[in-house]
Write a structure and sequence with these properties.
The protein has about 60 residues and is mainly β. It is built from no helices and six strands. The protein has a three-stranded antiparallel sheet, with no helix packed on it. Strands 3-4-5 form a three-stranded antiparallel sheet, with no helix packed on it.
Length: about 60
């Protein structure tokens, strides 16, 4: 099975950072409480796994690793 990834802004030169998450993509909710802050939480527990600049998205990796 392909892992779940959190994609968020990264430092130059890549400008994109990916981090593996342990649960399926549908187990996470992404919100934007202010124009500058994106929040990713576990739906079942409300645990925050990311808070920071966006856009932030949770996706299934296209390749297994």
């Amino acid at each position: 099975m392909n892992p779940t990834l959190l994609r968020k802004p990264g430092a130059p030169p890549t400008m994109l950072e990916e981090r593996r998450l342990p649960l399926a993509p549908e187990a996470y909710a992404v919100s934007r409480p202010t124009p500058d802050v994106w929040v990713v939480r576990v739906v079942a527990t409300g645990q925050e796994v990311y808070r920071g600049p966006g856009p932030a998205v949770v996706v299934r990796s296209p390749a297994p690793f």
